[in-house]
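Fold Annotation — chain and its backbone
Encoding — discrete vocabulary of local shapes
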Amino acid sequence: MSLEKILSISGKPGLYELKSQTRTGILAESLIDGKKLTVSARQNVSLLSEIAIYTLTEEVPLRVVFQKIAEKENGGEALSHKSTKDELEEYFFNVLPDYDEDRVYPSDIKKVLQWYNLLNKKGFTDFSEIKSDTSEEEE
């Protein structure tokens, strides 16, 4: 399982694994309870591999932020997303010191930590970049 197959669905809690495409949308499985659902093409769906966090100089891919959290926690769980706003901001500042405080809200930090902890709980700890098949064939 890679971040290329992990989805966030607007209006639905948690994260979902992309199982297959259907004629009218996609079939996804909840990482929380394993239930499958069909998601309409009209619903707002985001791939975690496409999400980035604003910093003062650039946008950092979510997988890099997850990797930094994993390094900070030695592969363990991060701070709970239910912590206070100040605790969340301080923790995130330790992980990504140059994050843009004007564009990254506490709700975004909560979501990132909640997602990281859910992935960690499911045994997903490899946040390294996806290697394309073509680059391996060229070597």
User: Anything to note?
Assistant: The chain has two domains: 3-48, 51-121.
